[in-house]
Design goal:
Shape: globular
Strand content: 35-45%
Strand order of the largest sheet: 3-4-5-9-8-7-6
Number of strands: 10
Number of helices: 4
Distance between the termini: 51 Å
Largest sheet: 7 strands, antiparallel
Structural class: alpha+beta
Order of helices and strands: HEEEEEHHEEEEHE
Length: 183
Amino acid sequence: MLKSLRILVVTIISLTLFSCSVGLGGLQSYVDATDGYQFLYPSGWVGVDVKQSSQGVDVIFRDLIEESENLSVIVSKVDEEKTLTELGTPTEVGYYLLKQMNNQAENGRKVDLINAESREVEGKNYYNLEYEVTLPNQPKRHNLASIAVSRGKLFTFNLSTLEKRWDKVKNLFETSVNSFSVY
């Protein structure tokens, strides 16, 4: 009887631990202590060498197999006193970024905002944005972004994939974008 009880307890604990790890399965952690942000990104993705640019791109990762799938973090300056909500609502900020992307007429890009919502984590506000992107002579893309403001910096975390792969990676990408946090 005692042996059966032990086996049952060990089995329950094992299943519980396994089911907890499945939620984050396929993701690994990235922390930038210098700029003060962190996120989870898909396993099998590698960092791309980023040269300091005026665009503020801080880090880029891409999938080894599906090279068009990528993520980036852009860090730019914002007034030290500004909060994310002072920049606008999620929809306003989403349309502002959309306008910035569409203003690059030479690249022929067309971007549509699909969804904009806010979330709060440990007292910090984040805007999650979802876009559909069309580029000339390329398949349609699906982008997710998380926007945050901290210490006079605007952080933009962006994940991108081909629209045809969206259903396969949606849950993984949503978990990744929701893991983005600043401190």
